[in-house]
Amino acid sequence: MSERLEDIARALVAPGKGILAADESTSTIKKRFDTINLASTEDSRRDYREMLFRSTDAMKNYVSGVILYDETIRQKAKDGTPLVDIMKAAGSIPGIKVDLGAKPLAGPTSKIETITEGLDGLRERFAEYYKLGARFAKWRGVITIADGLPSWNCVKANAHALARYAALAQEAGIVPIVEPEVLMDGPHSGHDIDECYRVTAWTLRTVFRELYDARVELEGIILKPNMIIAGQKSPKQASAAEVAEKTVKCLKETVPSAVPGIAFLSGGQSDEAATEHLSLMNASGPLPWPLTFSYGRALQAAAIQAWGGKPENVAAGQRAFTHRAKMNSLAALGKWSDKLEKAA
Ligand code: 13P
């Protein structure tokens, strides 16, 4: 493995920095824009993301890299500057989502379980994305907790796909973010924090076995897991302290220390919960790896609302985004507090 993969991975989890997941597919960003009654067009998507990437304070100081969608990595700002150049000028590394989405997994559980697609032709796509400036990538496998589920078939198939993707990424000189997400918004009321623990540990063990079989260099990946948290439908919600403690315990049991860093997804947690959980974990250190954020919704929800799709609100949107980025930067250092949150 070239030194470079390891260097990129370490830069992504540099102290006090984390990743902005801005790789919403066209259908997902439409859902976000629906909440502010904004039509999703190529231009409105560009304007929104340009607003984020031109938040210079956030991009310089708190955001190590941005996961982009295929459309965005090719897009130019209003003044003609490639969006990729804007983030690079701020010192932030461009990344790319390369999976083509979670599709029904054929078989008896196809109404609930999915397999992530996108391996065919991926070697050629990686070569193009590298030329477009991407130095890291993301692939998300989805695991759903339901009655008697996940099935072994689903866990194994998604772990295998993640490993094949990760090997292709490293071959192209691109750091793979390996994202096996155990959903927290599944249908099952019996999905308490211990069930999340059991399923996440099983999934992570399977993923690392597949990565090993595929000869993926662990020093050149970033793991992007869910936290250990009760499902949203569970009547038994856990405290922030329990989420932090069980997440760290589960990761220590399953993730080799050769992995340079772990960057969590927010997965539907509230903005502040995602920040608080991360901060508590880091404050409980020392830990075998840096723990940071790779949030989508928990970094962007406030910014979308403050912006509202209106040019006159760009500065307000940037302030909201910068505030969340700063709070999560503090959390990555274990230094966030409710007082700092409110003081801002
Ligand atoms: P959330 O933080 O909104 O879960 O998004 C992160 C992500 O990239 C999911 O794939």
Would you summarize the structure shown here?
The protein has 344 residues and is an alpha/beta fold. It has helices spanning 3-12, 26-34, 42-53, 56-61, 70-73, 83-89, 122-131, 152-171, 193-213, 240-254, 271-283, 297-307, 314-332, 338-343; strands spanning 18-21, 63-68, 93-97, 102-104, 114-116, 136-143, 175-182, 222-223, 262-264, 291-295.
What is the overall number of helices?
A: 14
Written as H for each helix and E for each strand, in order along the chain, the element string is HEHHHEHHEEEHEHEHEHEHEHHH
Largest sheet: 8 strands, parallel
Spatial extent as radius of gyration: 19 Å
| Average predicted local confidence, pLDDT | 97
* Category by helix and strand content: alpha/beta
Poorly predicted ranges? none
> How helical, in percent, are the residues?
40-55%
First-to-last CA distance? 43 Å
Strand order of the largest sheet: 8-7-6-3-2-1-10-9
Mind explaining what this structure looks like?
With 344 residues, this protein is an alpha/beta fold. It is built from 14 helices and 10 strands.
Topology:
Layout (H helix, E strand, L loop, with lengths): L2 H10 L5 E4 L4 H9 L7 H12 L2 H6 L1 E6 L1 H4 L9 H7 L3 E5 L4 E3 L9 E3 L5 H10 L4 E8 L8 H20 L3 E8 L10 H21 L8 E2 L16 H15 L7 E3 L6 H13 L7 E5 L1 H11 L6 H19 L5 H6 L1
Parallel strand pairs: 1-2, 1-10, 2-3, 3-6, 6-7, 7-8, 9-10
Antiparallel strand pairs: 4-5
Bound molecules: 1,3-dihydroxyacetonephosphate.
